[in-house]
Write a structure and sequence with these properties.
The protein has five helices and eleven strands, in the order αααααβββββββββββ. Helices cover 32% and strands 23% of the residues. The protein is extended and about 125 Å long. The chain is α+β, with helices and mostly antiparallel strands. Strands 1, 2, 4, 5, 6, 8, 10 and 11 form an eight-stranded antiparallel beta sheet that branches. A three-stranded antiparallel beta sheet has the order 3-9-7, with no helix packed on it. It has helices spanning 16-40, 52-88, 101-107, 115-127, 142-145, and strands at 154-158, 168-173, 177-180, 185-193, 197-204, 208-215, 217-218, 225-226, 231-235, 246-253, 256-258. Residues 96-105 and 132-142 have low confidence and may be disordered.
């Protein structure tokens, strides 16, 4: 109010609804700013448990790459040293007599094909001409392209033995152990099994399937995508039952059970 003329200059209306709306807008703005700072800045690395699996996977890949580079560097050093010795005259050049195997096979009568061999080769080529199996590409060994993560920290108390219908290994864990995904993939089963307890199965790339049995609590649901080393279940150990403190871990490759110890360093 104007004190001289008693004229109304400006006014403001306040209510519980408008105050609540302003409070929600402020809270949303504050949460958005905080999330953007955590995601876009290195501050996220200081938060406990954030990106642990990703950092561990990158560290493992970096260690493997470093080892390969060191081996290649040794080869290069040995090659350069050999060249240096040859130029200095301290190393004798190997005198290897090269032989053209093609010319030998054509000119040597002992290496020529007989008429029966030629007939058999021609008949075999005609029979296999339209066989699709001979055109299938050779697959590489799974270990060459896949890096596995240890599913749990503990001691192996039962080995892989298919003859006794034990298609995996049993790992004795400590109290309240977190079970991690051995490789990134999609959860194809997550539920309670009468014999195996809470079980989770993950389909991985290159035909691998990992199975985690005897869990106390499942952290993932059917259809969820998991990363390498991500927590997927929890085992709460009890003193009364030894079986309740053990993880049953199985690894299958293209429909056949394989020994997890051949692929994972426990």
């Amino acid at each position: 109010m104007n004190e001289n003329t008693l004229e109304e200059i400006w006014k403001i209306k306040a209510s519980i609804f408008s105050g609540a709306v302003l409070l929600l807008i402020f809270a949303f703005f504050l949460i958005s700013i905080t999330s953007a700072i955590i995601i876009a800045t290195p501050i996220r690395y200081y938060l406990p448990g954030y990106l642990d699996a990703e950092v561990r996977e990158k560290a493992l890949r970096s260690a493997i790459k470093t080892d390969s580079l060191e081996q290649q560097l040794k080869y290069q050093e040995a090659y350069i040293n050999n060249l240096r010795d040859i130029f200095k005259g301290t190393r004798q050049i190997d005198s290897v007599k090269t032989i053209d195997t093609i010319s030998v096979s054509e000119n040597d009568p002992l290496l020529k094909k007989t008429d029966r061999e030629k007939a058999y080769t021609k008949r075999f080529e005609e029979e296999e001409k339209y066989n699709l199996s001979v055109l299938s590409p050779t697959t590489t060994t799974p270990m060459e392209s896949v890096i596995f993560f240890k599913p749990a920290v503990g001691t192996i108390i039962s080995k892989f033995d298919p003859k006794k219908n034990h298609f995996g290994i049993t790992i004795k864990t400590s109290a309240k152990t977190t079970i991690s995904a051995t490789l990134e993939g999609i959860v194809i089963y997550a539920g309670l099994d009468i014999k195996a307890g809470y079980t989770i199965q993950i389909q991985h790339k290159n035909g691998f399937i990992s199975i985690y049995k005897n869990n106390s609590l499942l952290l993932k649901k059917l259809g969820e995508k998991v990363r390498t080393g991500e927590a997927i279940a929890i085992i709460e150990n009890t003193k009364e039952e030894v079986a309740a403190s053990s993880l049953e871990f199985e690894l299958w490759y293209k429909g056949s059970a394989v020994n997890p110890e051949n692929y994972i360093s426990f």
